[in-house]
């Protein structure tokens, strides 16, 4: 029997007296695109940190490619949130990508020629070759995210973890970034775990959704999860889900609910819990 890339069994995470989620049974298969939705502070980023070996489970078990997670696992590619670089930062685009190969190692670069070839291939794969030698601080948000994707796939990871990589990007850049991630998934069979506040940009690619709300969760296809009945049960209040031209809208009298599933407002106290 093939070992699943990611497997959590009866998994729980507590931070102090607060339980983020508990009793989570989740298996992510090869080539699957899993979107992780929910308000701030519900443990979406924490799930990625568990897989990266940065946060231990409070209960249950977790396996990454059949083994316990550990820091610096080369099998994991990580695409972080879009955060603008300082415009005066002197490093070039290709320097940022190369960190995916040797940024964790002290001393001078090793295997320079082979690493340069891999960097060039990664830059070409994401369409970033034209600005590979430009200072990263002068690039657009979409261009910077292309470089981060190139960095994440440089080591040919078997699992791709994406932590809200679409934040602060315009619609065209969102589409370009999600398309690149999906192309990698299809070409290499790499499963994608994609944390997001807004499901609509990635909806064409999503196989299943993990929706986290106040210690509770639901797992299923978009058609199973994005319904009035399912979200009303999850939030514990009356929620209406409307589908308009292949986009989902959520309507509720409660202030904390978004106009789209996953598009939750950022509250400072919740943000501290999550990050």
Task: Describe the protein's architecture and organization.
Helix 3 packs across helix 4. The protein has a 6-stranded mixed beta sheet with strand order 5-6-7-3-8-9, with helices on both faces. Strands 2-1-4 form a 3-stranded antiparallel beta sheet, covered by helices on one side. It has a two-stranded antiparallel sheet with strand order 10-11. With 275 residues, the chain is of the alpha/beta class. The two termini are 37 Å apart. Strand 8 (208-213) and strand 9 (216-220) form a beta hairpin. The protein has 8 helices and 11 strands. Mean pLDDT is 86; it is low at 103-108 and 264-275. It is 30% helix and 24% strand.
Q: What amount of the residues lies in strands?
A: 15-25%
Oligomeric composition of the shown chains = single chain
Q: Major sheet: order of its strands?
A: 5-6-7-3-8-9
Whole-angstrom Rg: 19 Å
Q: First CA to last CA: what distance?
A: 37 Å
Order of helices and strands: EEEHEEHHHEHEEEHHEEH
Major sheet: 6 strands, mixed
Low confidence ranges: 103-108, 264-275
Structural class: alpha/beta
Give the % helix.
Answer: 25-40%
Shape summary: globular
